[in-house]
Amino acid sequence: MSVEPAAAGDVDRLLAPRGTRTGRRRSAGLVLAIGFLALLVLVAVAATWIAPYVPSAQDLDDRLSGPTPEHLLGTDYLGRDVLSRLLHGARPALIGAVVAVVVSCALGVPWGLLAGYYGGWADSALMRLADTVLVFPSLVFAIAITGSIGAGIVTSMAAFGLAISPSIARLVRAGVIGELHKDYVQITRMYGCSAGSRLVRHILPNSLEPLAVQVTIYAGIAVLAQAGLDFLGLGVQIPEPSWGADLSQAFTYILVDPAATLAPGITIMLTVLAIYRVGDAIRDRL
C-alpha cells in the first residue's frame, strides 16, 4: 500500500504547538470582536447616511416579507425596512451602554474609594447602603426608578447604572484596601501629601486594573438591560428604532413570521459577545 506524502501545510499544522494554535484562534476572535465593535460605532454615527430607507417609513402592502433585493433583511409588521431599523438601533444601544457605565463608575468609584480608605464607621455605613441597593435585582431596580421618573433611554440606563454602582464600589473598595498599607502609600504620608491627593494620584490608579475588566462585563450587561427595558417599553419609545423594541414587536408576530425575531436577537447577541471578548483580552493583558 502506498502512502501519499502529507502537504507542507498539514505538517506545519500538526507540528505546531497546541498553545500556538489556540493563541492564533484567540487572536483571530479578538480581531473579529474589535472589528465588529468598530463597525457598530461607525454604523451608529453614519446610520442616517448608510441606511437604505427611513426607519419609520411604512409600506402596509409589503408587511412581514422575507429578504428581497429591495429589503435585504425583510420588513416588519408595518412594512418598515428591518435593516434600516437595525442600523439606526445601534445608536441607542451604544448610548445606553455608555450612560450606564458612566453613571455606575461616577457613583461607584468615589463610593468605594471613601469606604476603603477611611474604614471604620464610614466603611460600615457605605457598605450597608450598598447591600441595601444590591438586595434588589438590577433590572427590577431600574424598572422601579424608570417607572417613577419616566421612560426614556437616558433615565432608564442611568437607573440601571445606579443599580450596578454598589458592585463597582465593592470592587474599588477591595482594591483600595489591598493598596492601603503598601510602602508607596506610607511614603506619601511621610511627604505630607493630602488624603485627596493620595487617593486620586496614587491609590486609585493602582486599584483600577480589576475595574477595567469589570467595566466590559457591565457594558455587555448594559446592552442586554437596555434591550430588555426597550422590550418592556421603558427605554426608547416607539416608533423610534431600537433593538429591544423591534424584538418586542417581532415577538408579537412570532407565529406568523418566526424569523422576524432573528435579526434584532442575533445583533444583540453578537454585540454582547464582542464586548465580552474584548474584556477577556483586557483581563489576559492585565
Describe the protein in words.
The chain is 73% helix and 0% strand. It is mainly α. It has a single domain (82-285), classed as MetI-like fold, CATH 1.10.3720. It starts with 7 loop residues before the first helix and ends with a helix. It is a multi-pass membrane protein. The chain crosses the membrane at residues 28-51, 93-114, 126-145, 250-276.
Largest sheet: none
- What is the total domain count? 1
**Second-tier CATH architecture:** Orthogonal Bundle
**Rounded mean pLDDT score:** 83
Percentage of residues assigned to helices: over 70%
Strand content: under 5%
CATH topology: MetI-like fold
Low-confidence blocks of residues? none
Fourth-tier CATH superfamily name: MetI-like
Instruction: State the end-to-end distance.
Output: 54 Å
Helix/strand/pairing category: mainly alpha
- CATH class reads Mainly Alpha
* Shape estimate: elongated
Domain ABC transmembrane type-1: 90-279
Family: Belongs to the binding-protein-dependent transport system permease family.
Keywords: Cell membrane, Membrane, Transmembrane, Transmembrane helix, Transport
Protein name: ABC transporter permease
